């Protein structure tokens, strides 16, 4: 029991992606400028996600190929707007791996990345029995969900210098 608290499996089993430093910095910059790091409700349970929205499909395909994960969807544009695409990477292990890969280069999304990183450690899916992906949420998990929603809210949110 103590070993699992000190060394969660997600830390022991997940390694940063093996990419060149300039590629990691480029992807981190795209996430900072065009992306979102958060915890979103998916039907009954919460899922950590990294998303990047852009009108350049080639850019998203390049990032998806570099990361080796994610799915790209076509967002419905409004009238007279360019088509918009979204790269979405979800799940604790994938998101955790992206965060530990790009965290040293993040500037704008540092706080959301830290909150989601803590969520992945706290809500360690590897230690849960099969079929129990989400329940029960404790007060710490609820606090992290509330924190990420406050940080990611539109309008006058938390300002980070």
Name the structural class.
alpha+beta
What proportion strand?
A: 15-25%
Give the % helix: 40-55%
Order of helices and strands: HHHEEHEEHHH
**Can you summarize the main beta sheet?**
4 strands, antiparallel
What CATH calls the topology is Endonuclease I-creI
The strand count comes to 4
**Average pLDDT metric:** 82
CATH H level, superfamily name:
Homing endonucleases
**Total domain units:** 1
Biggest sheet strand line-up? 1-2-4-3
Give the CA-based shape.
Answer: globular
What is the CA-CA span between the terminal residues? Answer: 40 Å
Taking pLDDT < 50 over at least 5 consecutive residues as the criterion, the unreliable ranges are 1-7
Computed over alpha carbons, the radius of gyration is 16 Å
Tell me the quaternary state.
single chain
How many helices? The count is: 7
CATH-level-2 architecture: Roll
